[in-house]
Design goal:
It catalyses: (S)-malate + NAD(+) = oxaloacetate + NADH + H(+). By secondary structure, this protein is of the alpha/beta class. The protein is built from eleven helices and eleven strands. A hairpin with a 6-residue loop joins β7 and β8. The structure holds nicotinamide-adenine-dinucleotide and (2S)-2-hydroxybutanedioic acid.
Length: 332
């Protein structure tokens, strides 16, 4: 029996993501938590004829505790989205506190759950989550994931457009680094099956993958950022974790992880100047991350330059998250 919780379930991502989880045959109980509107969202979803029993919780009456108790997987899209002109880092001041409070709940009530962080800035909110779990002595790096799947989905979609592949799902592209602008590094040279991208199109394609989020923020014109494509991508990653949990083998998905705590992570860490967090394709198993793969060694010269820029950007983002928790850890 698998219990899943969505924290931030009434939001733009939370609602469609909860809908997809409600239709997932690997989920038996679905708990929706938000500071608003979850009773309505849960009532609505509960009429769908699938087995997952769906309940909604608000902060009152120990709602977070009730949502999290017994959870096997917690997906967190709670927090503010960007408006045009903002960077993801500008969300830090609001979202850092939201994520650390929710992870404190995870540490207390479901410390063994897989935790999938969607809330931005992912480059900092994942280190925040890790530090909170460490402070509570329940940190298992194999179960904490920064969800970078939207970058992977975009890489397939935009590359397919350029090479004339009608079904983007056929293209697998390792996207590594972090989740913001030039910390996102698509390793197009390692696309499988191999594709031939016209040389004059490569830089534009890389830029579109790195700044795809801005494209949506701009188009939504003040009404938020990617929600539907994110729900698709977040569900894809959650389903991968659940399939691996149920024993399916051979599942590999890129995700932003704490390298020192994942088998194979030390190899990647050496290659990224000692950064402790980095997204790489990760093999998943019943306990979460089984092995971090290292596609960086085979990066092309141009990709190595992109990696240098990503590493420099990530350093500050990661330190900011770690320092936020260390400065406030007395309050946890
Ligand atoms: N990782 C990614 O690739 C990715 C992609 C898209 C968006 N995001 C991020 O996901 C987050 C959510 O985006 P959205 O478009 O769904 O925003 P939204 O504003 O539509 O929804 C956020 C929800 O979080 C809830 N919330 C706020 N504080 C909370 C708390 N303390 N506890 C529980 N719930 C709380 C809000 O009530 C709201 O329902 C943003 O930070 C956004 O930047 C990440
Ligand atoms: O761009 C954003 O702020 C949301 C998200 O991180 C995205 O990549 O779409």
């Amino acid at each position: 029996m698998v219990k899943a919780a969505v924290l931030g379930a009434a939001g733009g991502i939370g609602q469609p993501l909860s809908l997809l989880l409600k239709t997932c045959s690997l989920v038996h109980e679905l708990a929706l938590y938000d500071v608003v509107n979850t009773p309505g969202v849960a009532a609505d979803l509960s009429h769908i004829a699938t087995p997952a029993v769906t309940t909604g919780y608000l902060p009152a009456d120990d709602g977070l505790q009730k949502a999290l108790e017994g959870c096997d997987i917690v997906v967190i899209p709670a927090g503010l989205p960007r408006k045009p002109g903002m960077t993801r880092d500008e969300l830090f001041n609001k979202n850092a506190g939201i994520v650390s409070a929710l992870i404190t709940g995870v540490a207390k009530w479901c410390p063994k759950a897989y935790v999938l962080i969607i809330s931005n800035p992912v480059n900092s909110t994942v280190p925040i989550a890790a530090e909170v779990l460490k402070a509570h002595k329940v940190f298992d790096a194999r179960k904490l994931f920064g969800v970078t799947s939207l970058d992977v989905v975009r890489a397939s979609t935009f590359t397919a457009e350029i090479v004339g592949e009608k079904d983007p799902r056929k293209l697998t592209i390792p996207v590594v680094g972090g989740h913001s602008g030039d910390t996102i590094v698509p390793l197009l040279s390692q696309t499988t099956p191999p594709v031939s991208i016209p040389e004059d199109k490569v830089a534009g394609l890389v830029n579109r993958i790195q700044f795809g989020g801005d494209e949506v923020v701009k188009a939504k014109d003040g009404a938020g950022s990617a929600t539907l494509s994110m729900a698709f991508a977040g569900y894809r990653f959650a389903e991968a974790v659940l399939k691996a949990h149920s024993g399916e083998t051979g599942i590999v998905e890129p995700t932003f992880i704490y390298l020192p705590g994942v088998p194979g992570g030390a190899e990647v860490l050496k290659q990224v100047g000692g950064l402790e967090y980095f997204a790489v394709p990760v093999e998943l198993g019943p306990g979460g991350a089984v092995k971090a793969t290292n596609p960086l060694i085979a990066a092309s010269e141009a990709e190595k330059k992109l990696l240098e820029v990503a590493i420099a950007g990530l350093k500050g983002n990661i330190a900011k998250g770690v320092e936020f928790v260390q400065a406030s850890s007395a309050k946890l």
